[in-house]
Amino acid sequence: MGIQERRERERAAIRKRIIEAAEKIASDKDWDAVTIRAVAAAVEYSPALIYEYFSNKDEILLALMRQGFARLHALLAQAVDTAQTPAHVVEAIGLAYWAFSLESPTLYQLMHGLRGVSFGTVETPPEALACFEDLRGPIERLMVAAGTHESRDSEEQAELYWAFLHGLVSLCMNQRIKGGTKRASGLVRRLISDFIQSCITPTAASKTRTRPVPVTRR
Description:
- The chain has ten helices and no strands.
- The protein is mainly α.
- It starts with a helix and ends in an 8-residue tail after the last helix.
């Protein structure tokens, strides 16, 4: 291994330690507790060294947010690979999304609460775009198989799926669901089932488009 490669690996390892320390501080306390000095103390480095890797706290949080979406993408991709039918794939990605939110609640909150990060634009982090495609692709295949797919339908359905799942996650995290996580886990299965049904059921508009034109007899 050359000197340059060794230095790059050492820098990557230190960067990883800084990001992991920030996540642990937030998990133990909250995101307001994440400061350059707190992270420096956690990794036993000087604040000056932290600034060599991140210019401020927001850069650390952005890196952690992107790492969170990368983890979620890996779980969603795994769910896609293990399920067999289009409906089972859509169900699997919904359950994987739900499981991720329960296993990493602090990180999930950062991923969806970091200010100054645009979604639906060219500035959207690529890891977040990959997660959205993990939702959109299977939904499109499900709708195509059911004969209900129209232009842009899969993108809108993916946004609805994301909104439904995120809404239930947020309510559960803020203790707004009667019965807590146990009951909410049952609700998410019902939500997923209803959503799949909505994808394979023709809408009134599609029924109108596919209705045969009557032939007028003379």
